[in-house]
Amino acid sequence: YGANGYNCWLGYHLLENGELRENYSQWASNIVISKEPDEIKIALSELKSGINGILGVDAVVVTREPEQSSCIALGVLGRGQNIDSYVKYDEVVQIGNEGFIIKAFKTGNSEIVVVAGTTTKGLLYGVFSLLRLLQTEATISGILKIENPANQLRIINHWDNIDGSIERGYAGKSIFFTDNKVTEDLGRIKDYARLLCSVGINSIVINNVNVHKYESMLITDKYLNDVASLAQIFRDYGIKLYLSANFASTIEIGGLATADPLDPQVRKWWKEKADEIYSLIPDFGGFLIKADSEFRPGPFTYGRTHADGANMLAEALEPYGGLVIWRCFVYNCMQDWRDRITDRARAAYDNFMPLDGLFRENVLLQIKNGPMDFQVREPVSPLFGGLQKTNQLLELQITQEYTGQQKHLCYLVPMWKEILDFDTMAKGRNTSVKKIITGSVFNNKLGGMAAVTNIGNDLNWTGHQMAQSNTYGYARLCWNPDLSAEKITDEWVRMTYSNYEKVVNTVKEMLLGSWRTYENYTSPLGIGWMVNPNHHYGPNVDGYEYDKWGTYHRADHKGIGVDRTVKSGTGYAGQYHKDVAGIYEDMDKCPEELLLFFHHMPYDYILKSGETLIQYIYNTHFKGVEEVEELRNKWFSLKGWISEEIFLHVLERLDGQLEHSKEWRDVINTYFYRKTGISDELGRKIY
Ligand code: GCU
Question: Is-catalytic flag, 401?
Fold first, then answer.
């Protein structure tokens, strides 16, 4: 599998630098463990195979300290074993139940590298962290690294259907399901669990939020045993399994006439369902629920609130420590385009703010990063900083539904950094999204991040091999949102391709600029959409303009954009904390990249750069295509430096991206030229 990207960042190629390899091997060739290797079995085998791949040595494992040789000392702390003597009290107390310590020190002529956690899971994270240090040629001598994850819940969402298809999937079919059955290829599931564990993911939802007929049966005896086998594989790697459930399960599979959350029979049914699930999967994570959203059933049918709905399920899972993750993607998807009062952007906040404080302790609200739907540019959802008494999860989309569908290179880490760093001002300066979701700002018991995955059963997992960087980057940000985009990217390139500076620098440049490039040739200044309906690939400026989804740009011959101000528009800007609202409300203060999201602007409006709005649209679209040409040239300069198979595969994708970016450029420019009659100042070709 080596050359085609199957192993992703765990490919473990031999380090190029021979001297460094020697150096590391001096201590990495001996692994010292305690007498009872059972609880560390997986950590040990991961460590051995990693060392073998990276350093080319077959490490010897011994159960006591070798008298004079350097070694790795591996173990779980607090079990009264040798490993305890290497870690000081003030260090141990800093290691949480998912944390680890990596510590290197000299005794005499030997060097001991301690890798330990206070749990088996923490130890696994420590092992993968040490391997990452080796893969990226870090200095280990004298290191003292104690890490704990910033977020409690670090979740991957699959939109996999049980027939094997994946909603918004661009990398083949489901790895979990085929032909209405759970897969028998458990080897691949194990490889997936390893990948996720290596970057600290601790929760997975294996089926689509849209729970159809067969998926509703996942919580019946038809499927539960098979689901339990999947849970076992993930459990070994510290990952809890969750299911998306149908809110109307009592009707669909329970034989009841109602799904009313306040109906005693409904409540009883769910409690018994929980008993059944937990008897097979004792550490079952819980349910992810999409209710009253895009035609999915929910509590509104019965005149109940989303708090009523979520709390009913939460009560059933509570005795087992299970969680209810309730999505806030609730809006009117039957809007009349003539209606300028209703604003989809307002919907999540309008629906959920009144419920703040009404949810049980084991409920989390899962909130999409923006108020619309994973566009290339959106403001941050005002629910962050709005909600105070409710557990929250930030939902991101790794799968590139609106960002090039893994045919285009679009590295999303820089966008996610902006979202995480966004200052809601909810409790004065420095109330960033990343702090809020940890729960620390408002003392919420639970919190974290979830993202819709981009993986499928393509041999390289993500369709576009370089899209693996988005999976990697997401997970690293869950672990530590303070890592810079630059650092995460550096790690990924070194682990995936090589440590040669030429490769590292070139690929980093490609990745880090690619989101902005994509934005340049697609929809401008935060307005979003302009895509073909349904599949959402390719330009269609009016594709959603006269439709019912609440996604309009309102362009005419004089101007474009949606007035979302309080003064004269939909009032959306007023959902933010007043310091932020004031900025969005004022077209001169509004960050330019979001100008058309908040304001309807004339085409001759002068931007900060001195360009008119229309000229900016032309300029960025010509520039975007030129940048894709550069992307291709950069990649081409790596011929001979990357495995031939991956080199050609990525080249082919970049060729396709180049062609398609021209289509975007020409459709958008032509649309606005025809609408306005204003020519490009530089006289470039517009049709
Ligand atoms: C988007 C996407 C749907 C998905 C929905 C959701 O609208 O296009 O396929 O079901 O988001 O997040 O629930």
Answer: yes
